[in-house]
Specification:
Rossmann fold; Arc Repressor Mutant, subunit A; 2 domains
């Protein structure tokens, strides 16, 4: 299946560079470009991409607010934030807005392509520095947040699945750990996301730490 990609960046040369990289990759199709948040929202509605590569700092409507508005729509695409700014505030705000991944613009080409495929498949994808800082952020909290009421609706198996999602395990790894089929894992993951009103696995990871269902460093 071809993954339809929308490029959003205020620098035309960067959009051209990314476009050249992606157009040469089998299974990826660049369906359009946008230079700011407003153009991105319009392009999503018009082009129906599967993945949006979203810059953060742009004139007018920035990438964070554009992400928030796009994700709030019906059947939204996955948003992969791609930026030169490796700052904590951007990471947390992007996740809260509904981004499925966060990478820096100096990410190697093969990792960028892999990230697009990962988020298109419903997986969260973060630069290693981002992942480590997320864990440290939750480890440094002086109190555990109250569990979300929706957690009470999870079955024991679904709580197990959420804990393993928080360790960023793939469906295959979860299946091997629990000795169940990947099809069963996919079914459980879908139910967990639905019950917790989460967009994807990236938000599941954050929800697991925020709720205290898993602690940083816990296996």
């Amino acid at each position: 299946m071809t993954i339809r990609v929308l490029l959003v960046d205020d620098e035309r040369l960067l959009r051209t560079g990314f476009s050249m990289i992606l157009r040469s990759e089998p299974g990826l199709e660049v369906v359009g470009e946008a230079a700011d948040g407003e153009e991105a929202i319009s392009a999503v509605a018009r082009l129906n991409p599967d993945v949006v590569l979203m810059d953060i700092r742009m004139p007018g409507l920035d990438g964070l607010e554009a992400t928030r508005r796009i994700v709030a729509g019906t059947d939204p695409p996955r948003i992969l934030v791609l930026t030169t700014f490796d700052l904590d505030a951007y990471v947390y705000t992007a996740l809260a807005a509904g981004a499925s991944g966060f990478l820096l613009k100096d990410t190697p080409e093969d990792q960028l392509i892999g990230a697009i495929r990962a988020v298109a498949a419903g997986n969260g994808l973060f630069a290693p520095s981002v992942t480590s800082r997320l864990v440290k952020h939750f480890a440094a909290q002086t109190r555990r947040l109250e569990p979300a009421p929706a957690l009470a609706t999870l079955t024991e198996r679904e709580r197990e699945i959420l804990k393993l999602l928080a360790r960023a395990l793939s469906n295959a790894d979860i299946a091997a750990t629990l000795h169940i089929s990947e099809h069963t894992v996919r079914t459980h993951v879908t139910r967990v996301l639905s019950k917790l009103h989460l967009h994807d696995r990236a938000q599941a990871i954050v929800a697991a730490y925020e709720s205290g269902i898993i602690q940083p460093g816990q296996n």
